[in-house]
Amino acid sequence: MVLHGDSNIGKTLIVAKFQREHPDRFDEVKGVERRDVVGMQMPATPDQHRFYSALLFELGAPHSASASLSVLERLARELLRRIAPRMLIVDEVHHLLAGNYREQRASLNLLKFLANDLKFSIVVVGTADAPLALASDPQMISRFTPFEIPRWRESDDLRRLLGAFERVLPLRKPSDLMQRPIVQFILVASGGLTGEISRLLNEAASLAVLDGSEQITLAHLEHVALADH
Known about the structure:
Blueprint: E1 2-5, H1 8-20, E2 25-27, E3 32-34, E4 37-41, H2 48-58, H3 69-83, E5 87-91, H4 101-118, E6 121-127, H5 130-134, H6 138-143, E7 146-148, H7 156-168, H8 180-190, H9 194-210, H10 218-227
Parallel strand pairs: 1-6, 1-7, 4-5, 5-6
Antiparallel strand pairs: 2-3
Helix pairs in contact: 2-3, 8-9, 8-10, 9-10
């Protein structure tokens, strides 16, 4: 699956929540750690050596950055077989576009090889450019189903989201974020992006703590929005 949209923060939050819902566990019979989901980021430069190094870092495996590609690949495959994940999530897959055609194809072939060799699912996550990053390989396009994160619109779902934010913000007084003027302002100021909504509310909450009001008002939100321009 290809998960893509306009907000990096929103996608990252979704991936982090999914990983929390599928925590690591210890197989007491075999005496090994099991991880259903392994998450990593595509290196800023699409390079196989950097990819395996980043993967090993996420697996908590000590390794030498100067080791050969074959050594890193063998170590990563051995560890993945041992922990037996069902899914590998590769975030920031649009970084593939930073490489030339040959580098892009090499990185995509690496993903196909791991999926076929270790028999797990791969989910790639990125911006709206993510599908373009896969376009150089027709097999990758057919292998992945795109899923776009839509922007928020004024709706009951958005009000529930704001209500959930209000419950976790460290404020002593209710902010009533679901009232229409605040909902409409947040939509305009954030562009409907989950990550921007989160940032806007967290910065407004900080202002509310600093000025002692202990609740988010429209004035706090306007202050944050004006500071961005």
